[in-house]
Amino acid sequence: ISGNDSTDSNVVALSNNQNAGLDDYNKGVALIKLKKYEEAITYFNEAIKLDPNNGLYWNYKGFALYLLKKYVEAITCYDEAIKLDPSKNLYKINKKMALWLRWSRLTTYLGIFFIIFFFIGILFFIPFFFRPAKAILFDFGIGFMIQVLLRQGRKFRDK
What we know:
Layout: H1 2-33, H2 37-50, H3 55-67, H4 71-84, H5 89-158
């Protein structure tokens, strides 16, 4: 009879342990709805400590990190969720979204860099492109003035 009592108490302790993880998970989800993502992550971490083999906890921790724009950390959490439960397509979709935003953010920064580089290049190099035209006009102007002065000098000399 005592063996049955100890087995029953182990079952109760195990279910309380799972409920504790579920309670922390539920608190984390509620905090996400309140846009308190940092606090939500702490609750998801607690849930993961209590039940590290639950892919849902890892997924929601990744989602909170995703909302904080911490895409690399979110991808790590999604990888763990996919490893624990590969049949869940939601985890794979979330990972793809985080990957896409991570790369689109990087390409946005690269795009801004190239636009700035392009305009700086135009500002610095356009004067060099127009320099030959200016030089030609300058040379023509000086040449014309020299010719006028020489003619005037000849007229003055010939008088």
